[in-house]
Design a protein that fits this description.
This protein is α+β, with helices and mostly antiparallel strands. About 40% of the residues lie in helices and about 20% in strands.
Amino acid sequence: MDFDLEEQVLERQKLMKKSPLLIISFFLFLLIDIILFIILQKNPLFMFNLNRSDDNMPNPLLTDIFTTVFYTIILVAIIVYIIYLIVCLKKTYLSNYPVYKKIHTVADFFSIVPIFLFIIIVINGLFFSIAQVDGESMEPTFCNYDTVIISYNNELLRNDILIIKYQENFLIKRVVGLPGDKLKVSDSGVYINDQLIEGYIPNSTIEYEMTIPEGQYYVLGDNRFHSLDSRVIGLIGEEEVLGEVVSNLTNGVCPQ
């Protein structure tokens, strides 16, 4: 019995020492998450962007599901830690140790939430995002409703597929002309470095005969007959490029 009692005393002392560290680390990480959350609001592909809507996000359904689940988990974790803090301040571990131990166990379980949130925020805000293709402009490479992974930090090369924000629209297009390339667009087609790239020219095509300036790109959709691209909207500035598509998660079959 004495041995069991000693074990209980040691366990209580251990938890009493751990409680302040657990509470401080939880709210410290939560504060860091909030700071990053605010800073990364400028990224249109950030899934926690408060300015998002179905009209200005490339993945509204995925984003709604993801953020709803995450916000719920975060709210529950904060409530648990507020209760845990109150229990510790009231020194419940002295008056009702079983209750304190149960709450400590729950709080210990939720301690991973702000750390996991930090990882998600950093990855999604600084490195990768997920989007859903809307439209047929990149068929057959990407079909309508395909889900793709976007990388923010890749060097842009010819034939890379980009996510572009044009006005309030998100476009998915292929790079055909890079800075320094000789570009000619006339009624006979699109030429890059004197090579014919595309012969179909819509009525509203912008004509060029120039060297593409630094920081500018000429982009086309793979489905040339159904694509809003540089033939109509002109050169794309690097500030309009949100990222490069690096993977297709769904690989849908496009309608014939």
